[in-house]
Amino acid sequence: KNTLFKYFTPSPTAPKTPKNDAKNAMSLSRSKSESKSEFKKTLCDKSPNDRLNSAAKSKKSEKSAKKQLITSDEENKDPLNESDDTLIETLPELEDSGDEYVPDEKEEESEESCDSGATEETATDEDSPVKQNTRKRKRSSTSLIPSKKKSVLERTIPVKTNQTVAPTNLSQLNEITNVSDKEGNWAHLKYDFLKPEKIKDGKGRRPNHPEYDARTLYVPDDFLRNQTPAMRQWWEMKSKNFDSILFFKLGKFYELYHMDAMVGTKELSVAYMKGDLAHCGFPEIAYGRFASNLVDKGYKVARVEQTETPEMMTERTKQMHKATKFDKVVRREICQVTTKGTRIFTVAEGDAEDASSKYLLAIVEKELDAVRSSYGVCFIDTSIGIFHIGQFEDDRNSSRLRTLFAVYPPVQILYERNGLTKRTHQILSTSVSNALKEQLSPVIEFWTTSDTLTKLNERNYFTDGKLPETLRSFIGEVDSLGLIASSESEMGVKALGAIIWYLTQSLIDYQLVSLGQFEVYIPIDVPPENSENVSEIRVKNMVLDAVTLKNLNVLDNGSGGRQGTLLHRIEHCCTAFGKRLLHQWICSPLTKIRSIEARQEAVRVLRENQSILSKASDLLYKVPDLERLFSRIYAQSSKGLEESHPENRAIFFEEKVYSKRKIAEFISVLNGFQKLQEVVELFQEFDFHEESKLLSRCVKFKTYSKSGNFPDLTEHLKFFRTAFDHEEAEKEGRIIPSVGVDSEYDAAIEELSEIEKDLKVYLKSQCEYFGCKVSYVGSDKKRYQLEIPDNAVKKVGSSYEFQGQRKGFKKYYTIETKSLLERQLQGEERKRQALQNLRKRIFSKFSERNEDWNQAIECVAILDILMGLAKYSLSIEGDICTPVFKNISSSCKPYLKLVNGKYPCISGEDNFIPNDTHVGGEVASVMLLTGPNMGGKSTLMRQLGLIIIMAQLGSFVPAESLELTVVDRIFTRIGANDDIMSGESTFYLEMSETSAILHQATSHSLVLIDELGRGTSTYDGTAIAAAVLNKLCSMSCRTIFSTHYHTLVESYRSNADVLLTHMSFMAETEGDMDDGCEENVTFLYKLASGACPKSFGFNAARLAGVPNHITKAGLKRAREFELETKDR
Prior knowledge:
By secondary structure, the chain is α/β, with parallel strands linked by helices. It is 37% helix and 14% strand. It contains 35 helices and 25 strands. The chain is elongated, with a radius of gyration of 37 Å. The chain starts with 35 loop residues before the first helix and ends with a helix. The model is unreliable at 1-162 and 167-183 (pLDDT under 50).
């Protein structure tokens, strides 16, 4: 259920302040005796929700406070005493907001070290949506909520993550909005239009309407007419963004009102302000921390900025024919909407906490029959900006869709209203249960394919006006206008349309689409089009579906963590972008022997050169997340943000702080690329071409070596290193370019230089004319007055305008000096304008080299993974080897031979007993594995699967030796789980996974099946297991099939296609056979030939703590069953 809409939960009213108490009026002045350093120290000791507003001490402030109290009887009415039928809020209105805070360039900048972000200046409340009723604007560090009523909030606003962005049905809405007036008296709880029985969306539709839009809210016009100008702004924005928490900028603070304030006090631990309206807030500088907090919990946050100064407002209203009080308020606009799936990590938000990608995904479905569907998908990590677009047919188990979710885990999913089947909804509920889900209206929000292509062509996303090559490949061959997608891609393009619409609503579409990074997504198990020979491996990469990734604990340990997973064990990367690429590598191991061996050679060379490995690692650990930072710098460039974007009009109190951060990030990126260059230069003294061509491609400069792919960044970095003074720019928060860097700035400087020369020439001529020293005097717009001694003024003609005098001198303007002054002022304005957007132009120049920057990142990401694999191999205790791959031929059938292999996912492999595993080739391709419960059968199978993945990843493996032919896919049927959400039993899931194996396995596959058939009766289970085993024998795929069905084992004793093995043990019995003896089993965890005579289940029961008399009785009864079976 959506905690966003727990808004309507009542909350206690804060204590009211008597309206005749002038001493409690809001004061913006601080005590003069309080020093600046002491004040800043105080700020850093307080929580961000505290407002440091002192009571007014001067008579002037008391006078001002008393003036605020002069209100009419109508204004002094208490809105909480109005009848419930009245929808109009009768709070005193704010007539004018001309006192809106505007940052002063001369004002002391806020201390970045102070988390609160408050400064010596405090926010004005004169533009507050809530009249301040002559009370102190005080934030208490202690909660204003009585303990009894806190429990109400705790019950109604849970901390857990929201699963949907908005309530989707009437019952849910009633449940979260049904509030008793006795439980709280906040003003918004009494508004009729917010009550469950009367609430409507922006188009007046009730929640039971099929097209009800829970993201909008109907707010009556008569209610809006009686609001203060700023509060009217708030309600107008809220009515269009009812599913968002509005961070509403007021001066230097972000304010939360009404239902948003209730969320803020609960989730952010900020206290309510005094008054009848729910209201809380925090300083601008704390935006990143508080916004991230809410977004992490599943909320949608809309950042509202002031986009007009009071002077601009005054000028605007002057030009209006008849301005109303609602016009006399500074404009505010939503500048960004952030959800889990649309985070871009701006300088205000800070860096991502981890390197892993978080995807926003849109899905389109088309039913093929009762059990199968085709899907169109588009997904993007908005912090990087690469769009992945694909379309594919799926099987009855939706294997490809589930694998997509496992490899590219979405945190937010968009789908068309009524566009998905019940079957797909169940998959979303189980496979990606923690992802936010949001349904979009057909056509209007979830664009059609033609609308998507039309908007991509019409909007000014791409500088050359042409679609990127990847997008052009989706267009049908017969369409010359580029508005119709081919049948193979129309659903994927439609999903792209939904993503772009959503990014547009989040106000980040331009910066992501204009990057032009689009890739085609093809499911890993789709064979190439020219693949016809079924005897050959038909896929480029080993297929690991969602089931296998889960069963083998490749990415996740089953508890939502990474401890004990393969990824966690082998990830020794230094960079964030290297870690992300390793995630993709591990989900798609190679199948081409030459490519696998190339990686092995590179890892071996790095192992043998530990000195350079150590030096390179030290450098790479200092490299920031260049991939994400590049995207962020592009967004801050003149190309990354369209001119009409409200962010360009936003007024920030902390602008200087943000500017410093942007420059610091840019310098950090330059230093990061310098580190990449240094890493590559480390390898120049070594000639790796013969030993490792892959390593050469990563670390050789392509300008000097045919085998190298790394771009030489020397000239690029030199340009930006000398383009401006880095230290000064970081200190001052602005860039002053060097000569030749920016033509616009250079032209302005050259013009000012010419004016300076003309000034000197003219002054010299005046000195010669008067025969004495003449000087320029004056400042700003009164500059360049000629100061002439009194004894020379007799030569002053009629063209000299008298401006003033001082003892012994008189001042004059001439036509020439006026002209020079006008030119000077114009030149200075051009210089100011050139500097104003200089940072954006510098960032644009940097982004123009995106091909080189991205190629450098790609080369080092590969190098980082190879170095990590080398470091992993050096960390292994005991045996380690390079796997040897054999080509398939008439004399070499698929096989694998592992000698002394150990479980790879836990450090300290010496604690594990090594095992040999040999299937296929000269021996049977199917191994029938038996052994006692808890004897290590499942671990042996997981061990083999993980080692094969590592081998085809190009890694060394923990074993004495490994020989094998390439595996095209690993299938697993391990563990027993039902699916309550889908209504699927354990046995049904077993059969579904087994069906996939039988339909899709080839002779090159590895199949791992653990105890098939245990979800049904013994006879049915045995029969099914036998049938499946027979089929696998005929397919000749390498298989390990574990079972406790000993009758099944007996039937395959003489079958040459099946190899009988077991996990060895030692068993001892105690007690009388007739009374029921105890079995003591010692597990040896060693694979041995032959079948195990029994499973020793009672030993496992005893170890689990089952009472002794029960295990004895059970054992006795089991022996009776065995005798009965033999007699038959």
